[in-house]
Structure formats: C-alpha cells, structure tokens
C-alpha cells in the first residue's frame, strides 16, 4: 500500500515531462490543462500501446514519427453534438439574433469547434433567420483531424435522431432532413450550409487574435483548462470581440469571476451569454 502515493507522484512527474516534451518538440501546449482528464487519456494510450510507463509514451513521442498525432487525437476534446444544449440555441435565436440584424455584416467565431456539429447548427440557425448571406462563421480547432472532419460536414446517420430532437427543441421549424442527404452510413450537409463557413487550425493556448468578431462561442472547452490558461484565453477573446459583441460559454463556465469579467454584462445569464460593455 505504501507504494501508491509514490507511484502517483512518479506519474505526475512523468506527465509533466511528457507535456513539456510535446511542447518543446511540436509546439502542442497542454501544460495548463486540468491533469485528471489528461492523465486518464494518457493512461488509455499507454495501455493501448502495451507500454509499461508514461516515460515510454514520451520516448515514442520523441523518437517515433507520427505517434504524437495519435496522442494529440486522444487528448483533444471531441464531446459535441448538433444544437447541444438546445436552450442555448433557442436563447441565441430569441435574444441575440434581433441585435445582430442591426449589423451590416456578422462575424462569428466558434473556438474549439471539434468536428463541427455546433458550427453547422449555427449555420442552419442563421439561414432560418435570413442572415446567412451577411454572416461569416469562422470555425477553429487545434486538431487538424477534427478540422478535416468538420469540413466534410458528414455525420453518422445514427446520430440524426438525437440531432433532430435537439434542433426542434432549439426552436427549429423546418423538417431537419431538408438540410442533408444520406447514404446507408452518413448524413451529408448540403453545400449551401457550408458556403459561409471558414475552417482553420488555431490553438487557443499558443495563437493570437486573427480578426474582430461580433460573436465568439467557446462552449465546454475551458472546463479542461486551469485558471491561468482560462485567464489567458479570456484575454484573447476580449481582444477579439467587438464592442457590444457577444460571448457564449458552456453551462459550467463563467467569465464573471475572472479579471476580464468587469468588461462584460450578463445578457442571458442562465445560458451563459455575455455582452461586452
């Protein structure tokens, strides 16, 4: 029993060395991610590769071409669905869209978009509100594979039942199937839905601002960041958001208790939608 605390401490040292190695060698910076989630994902990869220690994972990262991509895929957050938290999209439709109508053009940034389900959700919402032509949606993620998947706009057919329910709960009034075609495995969103979408690789940890936006959505991403990294990302968002612009976060996230919080007012508090003062 006495070995367990020692073993845990040793693993923490190994994880620190692994994350430092990934950063020094490839520029992927996970050093300020919450450790509990990372540890679970690293251990899963260690077992899958039948490696005895996390140090052996680091050795493969440093010396085996392509292995870091496997690990990066493990460590990227991919939990998402179309119209996730339907009440958020309903609130966006009811409260934010009327304000966006007043603008000559609309720029929306989905930061940490994963495989793009929420991006296509927003594209559909703006289409239904008659704002698609003057809207550009920028969708970014640090994971190239996720971006490639998002660009295809193809999602497993078995997920469409859930996505359709979310769409209707979010205030959708069309037949959801009008937006996609299918084969026996996948639903493919129509090219019209992709016309105003711009996908790009962007790392919230290491990359800077690249435009000024009227809306920034980063939902259920920062729960994996420690407080220092959350503060850094909020500074990036504040710099990137136009005056009077909107920030949408996940249900368990808030900006009110951060240094940047003084620059925002609660717009739809229960849905974590904030407006820059």
Structure description:
There is one protein chain. With 277 residues, this protein is an alpha/beta fold. The chain has helices at 3-26, 35-48, 54-63, 67-75, 86-100, 117-128, 144-152, 160-169, 191-194, 227-240, and strands at residues 106-111, 135-141, 154-156, 180-182, 186-189, 197-201, 213-218, 241-249, 264-268, 273-276. The strands form 2 sheets. It has a 7-stranded mixed sheet with strand order 6-2-1-7-8-10-9. The protein has a 3-stranded antiparallel sheet with strand order 3-5-4. It is globular and about 60 Å long. The model has no long low-confidence stretch (mean pLDDT 94).
Computed CA radius of gyration, to the nearest angstrom:
20 Å
Largest sheet: 7 strands, mixed
Q: For the record, give the distance between the C-alpha atoms at the N and C termini, rounded to a whole number.
A: 55 Å
Work out the helicity level: 40-55%
How big a fraction of the residues is strand? 15-25%
Averaged pLDDT: 94
Number of strands: 10
Q: Give the overall form.
A: globular
Structural class: alpha/beta
Written as H for each helix and E for each strand, in order along the chain, the element string is HHHHHEHEHEHEEHEEHEEE
Are there runs of 5+ residues with pLDDT below 50, and where? none
Count, helices:
10
Walk across the major sheet and give the strand order.
Answer: 6-2-1-7-8-10-9
